[in-house]
Design a protein that fits this description.
Number of domains: 2
CATH superfamily of the largest domain: Hexapeptide repeat proteins
Structural class: alpha/beta
Number of helices: 4
Helix content: 10-25%
């Protein structure tokens, strides 16, 4: 049974799962699907063509599923897909996709978006990501699993953030960040590996040492990146291979070590 406050405004073609709670003065536009056990708190706004998974908590005054802030958007169909177990704190804004970006903005599972976070059109976020207060994402950004983005950081459009990355607070991220790395600065540079994050995630000493060796070869040696990739291509470590593939597929270029 659902708990819907009498002041909530719910348009037609809204599909609610079981045990959904809709708080005071919430607005839910048409063509929205909200799955089981999700809680929408007071004054939140859910725009059309939004899907929200199970066990999500959307805090007061969050705005999700609105049309993109892109002057090229001309009213075409696009959507926002939010997975399960996500927490979206006060005054967050998440926009739908555009036709030039695949038509979808997507948030995975088990993510925490703190207050005043903005996720622009066509961003793709993985799972178990923490985004601290007032972080601003431009369009077409990809963030892989288990990344942490420090407060008041800003990410340039089309940037890719690898898995298990830690971005320090107040960073300006204008290029891709390799998996497992730590980065800070107004124009971000690498500060080594996210060792604390890797240890907390249960990486073994052997795994961490393999990543350390690869980091030194790629970012600290006199080899060109092509030579470094060639040297490491037969590494027995899947983590090292993942790092190489991520960097080889970079279109914006990637952050270097300080």
């Amino acid at each position: 049974m659902n708990n819907i406050h009498p002041t909530a405004i719910i348009e037609d073609k809204v599909e609610l799962g079981d045990n959904v709670t809709i708080g005071p003065n919430v607005t839910i536009k048409s063509n929205v699907k909200i799955d089981d056990n999700t809680y929408i708190d007071s004054n939140a706004y859910i725009g059309s063509y939004t899907k929200i998974g199970k066990n999500c908590k959307i805090f007061p005054s969050a705005v999700v599923g609105t049309i993109p802030q892109d002057l090229k958007f001309s009213g075409e169909f696009s959507e926002l897909i939010i997975g399960d177990n996500n927490t979206i704190r006060e005054f967050c804004m998440i926009n739908r996709g555009t036709k030039n970006g695949g038509g979808v903005t997507k948030i995975g599972n088990n993510n925490l978006l703190m207050a005043f976070v903005h996720i622009a059109h066509d961003c793709i976020l993985g799972n178990n990501i923490i985004i601290a207060n007032t972080v601003q994402f431009a369009g077409h950004i990809t963030v892989d699993d288990n990344a942490v983005i420090g407060g008041m950081s800003a990410l340039h459009q089309f940037v890719r953030v690898g898995k298990f990355v830690m971005v320090g607070g107040m960073s300006g991220v204008v290029q891709d960040i390799a998996p497992f790395c730590l980065t800070t600065g107004s124009r971000s540079r690498l500060n080594g590996l996210n060792l604390i994050g890797l240890k907390r995630a249960g990486f073994s000493n052997t795994e961490i040492n393999e990543i350390k060796k690869a980091y030194r070869v790629i970012f600290k040696s006199n080899l060109t990146f092509k030579e470094a990739f060639e040297k490491l291509k037969n590494s027995p470590s899947k983590n090292v291979i993942d790092m190489i593939e991520f960097l080889k597929n970079s279109k914006r270029g990637f952050c270097r070590d300080r």
